[in-house]
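Dear colleague,

Thank you for sharing your sequence with our group. We've completed the structure prediction you requested, and as agreed, I am returning the results in plain text so they can be pasted directly into your records. Please verify that the sequence below matches your submission; if there's any discrepancy, let me know and we will rerun it promptly.
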Amino acid sequence: MSDVNVKLKRIILKKLEQDLGNKVVVPNGMNLWIVDPDNQDWFFNVTSAGSLEFNQKFFTLYSNLFSIDMKILSKILKEWFEIKFGIRIHSSMRRTSNLSYIVEIILESNEKKKGTWNLGNRFGFSYDVVKRFLNLQKNNKFVVVENFIFSE
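Please find the predicted C-alpha cells below.
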C-alpha cells in the first residue's frame, strides 16, 4: 500500500490492535461482529460474502489522529481484517449510524444461541474461521479479538 508510509502504517496497526484487543467477536448467522458489550458499541461487521463495514464514528478518531484520509484508512482496515481474521474482504465501507440497538439484539441472540456457528452450519464462513472461533469459545464466555486474530 503505497498511500501511507510503512512506519505510519505499522503504528496505525499497532494502535488498532491495542484498541480492539479486548473487544468481543460475536458471530450472528452470516455476520461476524466486533463489539464492546459493556457500552453496546460496534467496530466491525463482516459478512460471509466478504463485505466489511466499520464504525465511522470510532475510526474518525484514527483519521484525525494520524492525519490520513478516510479512504486510505478504509484500505488499511480492510487489509488488517483480511490478514488477522483470515476472511477475504471484497468491499469495505463506513457506516455513519450508531448501531447500539443492533448490538444489543446480537448479544441477546448470542446468549440464546440463535444464529450461532457450528461446524455443520458455518453460514458461509470458512471451516478454519469457524473452528478457530468454536475452539476459543469452549473455554471462554466471550471470544476477544486478541485471542482470535492471527499473530505475526
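Summary note from our side: The mean pLDDT is 92.

Kind regards,
the structure core
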